[in-house]
Structure formats: C-alpha cells, structure tokens
Amino acid sequence: MKQKVTLKIIAKEFDVSISTVSKALKNSNEISEEVREKIKAYADYYNYKPNSLALQLRAQKTSVIGVIIPEIVHHFFSTVIDGIEEHANKRGYNVMVCLSNESFEKEVSNISVLTNGSVDGVIVSIARETQKKEDYNHFEMLLKDGFPLVLFDRIVDSLKCDKVIIDDIGGGFKAANHLLEIGSKRIALLTTEDYITVGALRKVGYRKAMQSAGLEVDEDYVFKINDTKNLYRQIEKIFHLEKVPDAILAVNEIYAAIAMKIAIEKGYKIPEDIAVLGFTSGLISKFTSPPLTAITQHGYLMGQQAAELLINRIEHTGPKEFQKEVISTGIKIRKSTYIGE
Amino acid sequence: MKQKVTLKIIAKEFDVSISTVSKALKNSNEISEEVREKIKAYADYYNYKPNSLALQLRAQKTSVIGVIIPEIVHHFFSTVIDGIEEHANKRGYNVMVCLSNESFEKEVSNISVLTNGSVDGVIVSIARETQKKEDYNHFEMLLKDGFPLVLFDRIVDSLKCDKVIIDDIGGGFKAANHLLEIGSKRIALLTTEDYITVGALRKVGYRKAMQSAGLEVDEDYVFKINDTKNLYRQIEKIFHLEKVPDAILAVNEIYAAIAMKIAIEKGYKIPEDIAVLGFTSGLISKFTSPPLTAITQHGYLMGQQAAELLINRIEHTGPKEFQKEVISTGIKIRKSTYIGE
DNA sequence: CTGTTAGCGCTTTCAC
DNA sequence: GTGAAAGCGCTAACAG
C-alpha cells in the first residue's frame, strides 16, 4: 500500500512547517491566502485525510462504540445492532462489533480488547456461559474504572450500570392473556431452561396471567426445552399429556413453529383445536401456515436506546444515576390464534 | 471515567523512566529482577493495559478490518459477518461493521471514515444505489492507493481487487435442473429487476438449464418483482397465465414462500400440481408447509474466504494477482418439490 | 541495568 | 504570517 499523505509530507513539499499546513487545511486565517490555497489544492489532489488514530490518540476519544453480542446470525441481535448503528451514526460514532459466541472466555477477551482505548464505551448482551457461571468480574472491573457500559437483553441486576431490557414478564403476560381471551383453558408453555433469564421471565408473565384468570399453573404443562438436543422429540412430548392442551405458548418462534407443525401432523386443527403463539424474532412466524400469532420484540428500538444511554454516559449528557429502560412488547395477531375473517 | 494507568504514571510512581517500565512489563531481562517484579505487581494490581491506539499509531497497523454491508438484518449478511469474524479473529484481527443501508452516499462516507487509518483493509458488498448509479469512484481511489479491498456478493467486475461471489449462475442452473428432473415442463421464474446482479445471474442459469433440456424460455413465464411494491399482488400474476406453470423457481425464499402460499390458497397441491423452489438465505424455507426445497448459500464460508483474501492482501501473504473466489451453492431438497417418502 | 531520544500523525499554545 | 515545541501513549535504538 502506498504511503498516505501526511501533514509532514505536505509540509516538506512546500517547505513550510507542519503546523502551517495543519492550520492552512483548517482554513485558519493565520495563514496567508496564497499559501493556504496551494496547500489545500495539493491536499485535495492527493486526497489527504487526517489520520484518525492520531486524532483519537490526541483527543483521547475514539468516537467508536464496541458491541459484544452472543451471536449475530440471529434476527433479534441483528435488529439491535441496526438500532445501535442508527443512533450511533447520528451522534457521530462508529460501531465495532464483536461476537462472544456464548463463550465466557471470548466475552472476557473481547472486553479486554475493546476497552484498551479502541472504543469509548461498550454495549453488551451477556453470553450464556457467563450467565451460567455467574462470573461478572470483567464487567465489575470496568465499572470500577467508570468505563461506560450498557447491558441489554441478557443483563445482570447486580451490575451497577445502564441497562435496557425487553419487558419479558409483560410479554409472557400479554401472550398468555391473549390465549385466555380467545378461550383457551389448558395452555402449555414451551420454554427454555431456567438459567436463561428471558425464558424464565416469560414464564413468570405466563404464570401471572394464569393466576389473574383464576387458573393454577400445572407444571406438567411446562416444558423446558434444551436447545442442544433434538427439538422435535422434546417438543413432541406435549402431545403425550393425558389431556392435550388447547393452546401452546412458546417462548420463541422456532419452538412455536415446530409445535405447530407436529400438531398439524397429528391431525389437530390450528387454531380450532389448539391455538399456538410464539415470541418472534425473525420472519418465520409470518410464513408458517397458518401464520403465527406472536409477541414482537422491537430490537431496533432496544438498540437505539442502548446506544443513547451509552453515548449519554460517554458524553455526560444524561442523568447521573444509572437507568434501566424497559422496552415493551407488541403482539401481532395472526391466524394461529384467530378464527374468523 | 477514571484516568487509565499509563507507563508514565507507573514510571512516576517508582521514579524510574518510562522505558524502564515498558521493558519491565515486557519481562526484558535488561531490567533487574527486583524492579521488574514490583512494576509488574503494580501494573497488575491497577490493571494496566497498553493503549491500543498508541500501539496502532506506532505500528502503523490497526489489526482491524472494516466491513461495509447494505444491511445487517438479513440472514445472509449476518452469516457472512460471522464467517469474517471467525477468520479475522483467528488471525488476530477485529471487525468493524458499518451499514450502507443500500445508500450510495452512506457507502462513500463509510469508506472514507474507515480508510483514514482506522482499519487495515475493508470488505464490502456494494449498495444497490451504487450499483444503479454505477459510480465506483470511491473504490477506485482506494485501489489506486493500493488499499486492501475485497468485494463480496455484490461486486463489480471492472474493479481490480479480490472478490468472492456466490456461483449464482450455477445455482440458477442447479435449481432449474432439479425442477426439470422431477418432470416440470413449464417453469415460472420469479426474479428481481435486472440491475440486481444476483437475480440476473440466477436467471442466466435458469435459461441455461432450460436450453440444455431443449426447452425455450418463454418470457411470459419470467416475472420481475419490484421489491418496493406489493409483493403479493405482483406474484399473484403468475396465476393469471393461460397455462399455469407446473413449477415455480424463485430467486429468494420470500418470493417462494409467498408464491407457495398463494398457490395453496388457490387450491393447487404442492408439489403435485406445482413444485416450488427458492434460494434460501434464512430459516423460512424450513418452516413453510410444505418445507421449501432451496438452493443454499454458504454465507459463512463466503465470509471466511473474504477475510482470508483481505488479510493475505494486508500481510502480503498470498498471490500477487487478484483472486476471484467462487462459492458454489448447495441444494436442500424438501417436500415442496419432492413426492414420496 | 537504566535512561535518553526520536518518532508514529496531529493539534495547539506560544514565540517570533 | 509562520514556526517551534509540547504532548497524546508507546516502542526501540542507542547511550551511558
């Protein structure tokens, strides 16, 4: 790669000092019209651009924010990144994305790499492994130094920092409630294992809705799916219940789609025999048949909020106390729970 | 944010010179055991980490690669990023992601920001608007300076740089061929407008397959869908043909899913009356009913290859001539084209 | 064994 | 009007 033009090179070219060039390019009227013009012309011609590393080092500010997510091939997370990008760009920041791949070690190393001066702050959604280990030391170190950190979606309450979460309890409630409203009595819950907070919280919401309807939660109707094993086999167990449920609430759209597919294969009519509802994060719900009613998650908004909190923290332009933003969910009613039209 | 520890600070603490500290931390045996240990202990305790900006500025190397994609909320592109990340990390690089949002202007500004010293090279998939304008000046400038650039997926042939593309012609051929093999005679093609190369290339493959089968392509069976308008209405036109096709080949999974849905609504049996096949980039094909046969696209591999080409270019560790890697497609046969079992 | 110096590219204050 | 010098944080050649 060819040597890039620097102030030094231009200075040598015209036999002036570096600072003269710097000022000329900034249109400082300390510099004579004549010199200014010829320097600008030269710089322009050779496509001079100030080296941003030098600027950053000097300014002690990179205008870059780091983002660490567990995986990117996941509609929800891409949506969040999109939101982060949008807000960050608007405020003059760039985004550096790192993946933890759900690994504790990679998360720690990402944090370490990012916080050595390359970024002004980080936004992270915690890796599963970290959540399981409950080792948040790497974050605590950062916070001790007052390094700007925003947690989203997969958060941990004990960390003193800004957070933005989806209202999963509300979402679970909204979901179960919708099913109750359409007349479901026996709602099966397809959820994740307990240490995955998202699943656990949605379950809380489900439980709340059941209780407000005066129904008690039958634990036989709660299925904790292990993501690493055969999903079909695990989900099929729903249909081994003595009394097959008349509704299925799944905490994500894959589980929902699979459950629906199995139900149809077994000859059940959706939604007449069994209504199905999922939490969506992608495009699947729209294209199943029947299309799935789903709780929607506004990842984009979440990303924007996270970026806003972070940048406010970086620029000291928000409240001093740590914020916890809650993004409420929506519900998109489709044919899997809706008879009529 | 608290002042980070620097060599200077440590040096002052022990009343030694900065270089002594630097060496001590590098375990240089130029420094006495005693001094070394106390400095290391201190650094460790205060969690010293060398400022990477300073290192980068000094080394004239950032070990960061920039990636510019049209959008991230798109399974294919996330997959590619995933692949880029994987390879980049393996070789000690980090990834900075920017979105062009299909806008020419944003692409230009992204290039400009990234290439001012923040990254050692960039990987880009060109924005639609840029393709439409055919203005590739921002890339030509880079190449003139010998700046490492790799184009993927949406490329332009005239640019002299490394490229990696999907074998779209082969994919179109493979797709049409499969349909012909299962006995389809009248294959409708659902494609994009011509300036979208991907669609155009797949069409070429389709045409080739038809011709090798001794069939001629009836342009009435080619539907160019405009992504901004009502997809349903446009796709429905397939069924207005005097002779309804016995197979539909769609250049992406959304079109395929919609076409299939409309067909079913109209009472056609899939695949008996009409076989449907799409190019997949997400999870939709798997969850439609029947599940869609699809040409698969290996974005992950593509990302890895792109990163490899770029890093080889950066490190001068590959061939001097520009490479053009072609990633071949796969085909996943599902029920939408398969009778039996 | 330890320190001085120069330099990466840039900005800015202060002299001249 | 122009330039010298300091400094951002670090490394490395060289001097002592």
Automatic annotation (TrEMBL), chains A, B:
The keyword Lyase does not apply. Pfam families: LacI (PF00356), Peripla_BP_3 (PF13377). Signal peptide: none annotated. Gene3D superfamilies: 3.40.50.2300, lambda repressor-like DNA-binding domains (1.10.260.40). SMART domains: HTH_LACI. Residues 5-59 form the HTH lacI-type domain. GO terms for molecular function: DNA-binding transcription factor activity; transcription cis-regulatory region binding. The keyword DNA-binding applies. InterPro entries: HTH_LacI (IPR000843), LacI/GalR-like_sensor (IPR046335), Lambda_DNA-bd_dom_sf (IPR010982), Peripla_BP_I (IPR028082). Keywords: DNA-binding, Transcription, Transcription regulation. PANTHER family: HTH-TYPE TRANSCRIPTIONAL REGULATOR GALS, LACI-RELATED TRANSCRIPTIONAL REPRESSOR. This is LacI family transcriptional regulator. It comes from Gramella jeungdoensis.
